[in-house]
Amino acid sequence: MIIFGSRSLEPSNSTIHRALLESGQVRRVYLDELGKVQQQPLGLGLMLLTTVPETEAVEAAQFLLEQAQQQSEQAIIDLVTTIIVYKFSNLSREEIEAMLGLNLEEPRAFRDAREEGRIEEARSLVLRLLKRRFGEFSDELQRQVQVLSLERLEALGDALLDFSSLVDLEAWLQGEVKG
């Protein structure tokens, strides 16, 4: 099965796959031809939500959220809210909450991405501070710093202010391994 948002999105040059496409083994599905979101099962309705025009998106999203809440499908609720956030990227979270009639928790993907960004920034800052203070240091020490959690990177950032040499860093990292 190949899923396209619409027929216009199907590649025009399918010479490479023509035999397979014409064999009857592959079925093409065009989301915009399946009907309204409200007429589909929850999962299919979720895919359709990505293709509906903005004028219909709010009503469709509200319907899907209601269905997902009835079925206690938090993953679906997260996906619906994420799709609407992207579809209406010019609106604030508060405006989207009001539009959908929900108190939206930030979708997990956003939380995870922000947390990963914080870890990367902390890692980068600590490594820069160490290099500035002690110059270049071994790849092994750098690897040990790079695998630290955000909490431990923050602790190292505080501790390195008291380090007088790389020996202090090594001792601190050794304590991490033991602790």
TrEMBL record:
Listed transmembrane segments: none
Domain DUF4351: 115-173
Protein name: DUF4351 domain-containing protein
Organism, scientific name: Trichormus variabilis SAG 1403-4b
